[in-house]
From TrEMBL:
<keyword id="KW-0808">Transferase</keyword>
<dbReference type="GO" id="GO:0003908">
    <property type="term" value="F:methylated-DNA-[protein]-cysteine S-methyltransferase activity"/>
</dbReference>
<dbReference type="InterPro" id="IPR036217">
    <property type="entry name" value="MethylDNA_cys_MeTrfase_DNAb"/>
</dbReference>
<dbReference type="InterPro" id="IPR001497">
    <property type="entry name" value="MethylDNA_cys_MeTrfase_AS"/>
</dbReference>
<dbReference type="InterPro" id="IPR014048">
    <property type="entry name" value="MethylDNA_cys_MeTrfase_DNA-bd"/>
</dbReference>
<keyword id="KW-0227">DNA damage</keyword>
<protein>
    <recommendedName>
        <fullName>Methylated-DNA--protein-cysteine methyltransferase</fullName>
        <ecNumber>2.1.1.63</ecNumber>
    </recommendedName>
</protein>
<dbReference type="Pfam" id="PF01035">
    <property type="entry name" value="DNA_binding_1"/>
</dbReference>
<dbReference type="InterPro" id="IPR036388">
    <property type="entry name" value="WH-like_DNA-bd_sf"/>
</dbReference>
<comment type="similarity">
    <text>Belongs to the MGMT family.</text>
</comment>
<keyword id="KW-0489">Methyltransferase</keyword>
<dbReference type="GO" id="GO:0032259">
    <property type="term" value="P:methylation"/>
</dbReference>
<keyword id="KW-0234">DNA repair</keyword>
<feature type="domain" description="Methylated-DNA-[protein]-cysteine S-methyltransferase DNA binding">
    <location>
        <begin position="17"/>
        <end position="100"/>
    </location>
</feature>
<dbReference type="GO" id="GO:0006281">
    <property type="term" value="P:DNA repair"/>
</dbReference>
Amino acid sequence: MAALALLSSGQIPLTTFQAKVYHALVKVPEGKVTTYKELGLAIDCRSAQAIGQALKRNPYAPTVPCHRVVQSDLSLGGFGGTRSGAKIDRKIALLQSEGVRLNGNGCIEKSSVYTFPKKPQ
């Protein structure tokens, strides 16, 4: 997978936290999205804000697909540090080009949501 090779290349230094976020994120398949909360649960982080900050600083976008993360209510949330304008239009275009379905209210349809496998207890 190109994204994993890119992350492992060390071309751009990442914090340990960023690396955890990005390595989990590349597991979200094309055509699916996950939420800040689900991504946080997958890496044992309870802060959606911390996840959002790591995504905002993603130097490998869109190969490491931060555009595939949405809010828990399935609204789009932010992209590139903004919540409206050309960057959100780009997020929508990326998601739709991958087959993600949006409803009439601009939210993601539940059929497009990816849930990480549960960790063994």
